[in-house]
Amino acid sequence: MQLTHCLSTKNLQWTPRVHRHRLPPRTQSISAVAAAPPKARKTHSMPPEKQEVFKSLENWASKSLLPMLKPVKDCWQPQTFLPEPALPVEEFNEQVKALRERTAELPDEYFVVLVGDMITEDALPTYQTMINTLDGVRDETGASLSPWATWTRAWTAEENRHGDLLRTYLYLSGKVDMLKVETTVQYLIGAGMDPGTENNPYLGFVYTSFQERATFVSHGNTARLAKEGGDPVLARICGTIAADEKRHELAYAKIVEKLLEIDTTGAMLAISDMMQKRITMPAHLMFDGQDPQLFEHFSAVAQRMGVYTADDYADILEALIQRWGLEKLEGLTGEGRRAQDFVCGLAPRIRKLQERAEERAKKMEPHGVKFSWIFNKEIKL
Ligand SMILES: [Fe+2]
Ligand SMILES: [Fe+2]
């Protein structure tokens, strides 16, 4: 779920986005919790009276949102797809051996992308925290009965299976350096994320709509590549996770759809605001203790393998524009209409700039990057 290049909508240039770590790598390796200089960020940008919007939507959320969660008894669990540890040891070993044979032909690049996706899923505490920063929908007690809080906890519980399953599968494959992978997860959860959602649920739900679709696209592509590479079980795993993400996308997009219905201009401005800022990817602060540009390098591999590309970013935007009927929205204020024009005209501009960036990239010499996750083997970028 990563973009190699991001669109700067202000000056309309594609520039490699260097997500600087908050601390220089050397310092990070000494202490992952030292205070970072605070960035000036807007907070609590939703006027307090708008919290009433979310209060008034509680009935709607109970009836329309919560049924989009699956009852736990009907859910798959990581164990559904993994070797059965309760079997006699020889049979268990046979299942592990079969798993290793299936993954044997998958290329190193594939594992870089799968590890990056797994690490992104594993930083789940950060995402639950992020949703609970949102005014009017946060879980006030930790076990609040508000439908917003109920949704967030159950969504987290569904998501929690994704990282667990990918992590165990990768562990059993023997193809990755688990110590480095786990170190990256620890750094990432310690670093957090800042999607620029300003404690504002309008912005927050635009972000999650986009992001769930991005993960759907990414896991769908790792499923396709696993199938082509000879591992139908891994293909089913990634495909099953992608199906969860799709359901989550539909739920979050439904919230934004409802906001557009009851507060058209407010919701349109929120969509525009997030697209102006660009959708930052949840794992943009990843670090393995070694490569200060790990996220950019991982993104470049994902882009090259077609797992998540700048074109996908434009596709997601277009899909959401269509789902929300943004081109046909009526009753907007002047400011709302300007936001509508900006958002509805953005995808073709992104594509054009991406084409130019690709032209420039073709002229550059390929260079090798070592990934600690695959025992410092080099990948050509
Ligand atoms: Fe997920
Ligand atoms: Fe999801």
TrEMBL record:
UniProt keyword annotations, A-Z? Chloroplast, Fatty acid biosynthesis, Fatty acid metabolism, Iron, Lipid biosynthesis, Lipid metabolism, Metal-binding, Oxidoreductase, Plastid, Transit peptide
The cofactor note reads: Binds 2 iron ions per subunit.
Q: Detail which positions bind Fe cation 2.
A: E159, E212, E245, H248
A Pfam match is FA_desaturase_2
One GO BP on record is: fatty acid biosynthetic process
Q: Which Gene3D superfamilies match?
A: Ribonucleotide Reductase, subunit A (1.10.620.20)
Q: Where in the cell is it found?
A: Plastid, Chloroplast
* GO cellular component terms attached to this protein's record: chloroplast stroma
Reactions catalysed, as given in the entry: octadecanoyl-[ACP] + 2 reduced [2Fe-2S]-[ferredoxin] + O2 + 2 H(+) = (9Z)-octadecenoyl-[ACP] + 2 oxidized [2Fe-2S]-[ferredoxin] + 2 H2O
Report the CDD domains cross-referenced here.
Answer: Acyl_ACP_Desat
Q: What is its EC number?
A: 1.14.19.2
Provide the GO MF annotations for this entry: metal ion binding; stearoyl-[ACP] desaturase activity
Q: Which residues bind Fe cation 1?
A: E121, E159, H162, E245
Report the InterPro entries cross-referenced here: Fatty_acid_desaturase-2, Ferritin-like_SF, RNR-like
Identify the SUPFAM superfamilies for this entry: Ferritin-like (SSF47240)
* Class of enzymatic activity (EC top level): oxidoreductase
Q: Which cofactor does it need?
A: Fe(2+); Fe cation
Membership in a protein family:
Belongs to the fatty acid desaturase type 2 family.
Q: What is this protein called?
A: stearoyl-[acyl-carrier-protein] 9-desaturase
